[in-house]
User: What shape does this take?
Amino acid sequence: MYKGIKLICGTTHPQLGKDIADELKMPLTSITLKRFKDSEIYAKINEKIRGEDVFIIQPTCSPVNDSLMELLIMIDAAKRASAGRINAVIPYFGYSRQDRKATAREPITAKLVANMLTAAGVDRVITVDLHADQIQGFFDIPLDHFPGYLLLNDYFRKKKIQNLVAVSPDTGAVKKVRRFAQCMHIPLAIIDKRRPEHNKVEIDFVIGDVNGKNVVLMDDIIDTAGTITSAANALKEKGAKEIFVCATHAVLSDNASQRLQESAATEVLFTDTIPIPEENRFSKLKILSVAPLMADVIRNIHDNQSLGKLFSTYYD
Assistant: This one.
């Protein structure tokens, strides 16, 4: 057993760290983080953490390499400060899209990041909606993976929308969207998409009935929003009524926010695994907080309680 919980938050998403601390009704542990003039990162934990259960909160989103390096340095600082256990809370796991070799001479960078975290000294990883489930097998330490549809399931149950259909924007997301559809007891439709090159998509046809239906169009990551906006517009042409575009991670590169605002979507939902700056926000946007879920996970891990029962909390 460890002495108590210590929460440490990096510079990537300080608001999420504060929200989790508020949910747990405890302060964040003081840490000094700064950059030297040559861009090297410096970290110093300002409080005693010997024997404590330390949770380091840091999504590895843009700037991805800085966020990842800062996380590794904080882990090393905690390790050298004799933390009892080091848990990395990584709501968005950067490099998760590089989970396999699609062509010759490519790296499997998600595995490399897993190795780096383990080598740095982390004892456990907590994350949300990995791009590929097999990334869990890249770790030789405990990893707790929570799908983003848990929060979306809770949100749409409360809205009580009639004639709802869950739609996968491509075949790669079918498994995740099917789980959501099963939880909601609604039908599933699939969009057949082709990608002739990176960040370009072509919509061929829609498998399933969306005519006159309200649609939840789901994915785990929205980056340039090319896929999802093309899908939303295709669904509108097929007779869909209200279209709710949903994703766990708001990467939002280039003009993604503008594309989403101008698309056929009625509402665009993201969680706050990645911070969304004011300049990327738009009128159709709604943000769901992962802080209550992450706080429950941290509390249960520290108390050696089941994490499985958290799934039923969001299903009911």
The chain has two domains: 5-147+291-315, 149-288. The two ends are 32 Å apart (CA to CA). The first helix runs from residue 14 to 24. Residues 153 and 159 are 10 Å apart (CA to CA).
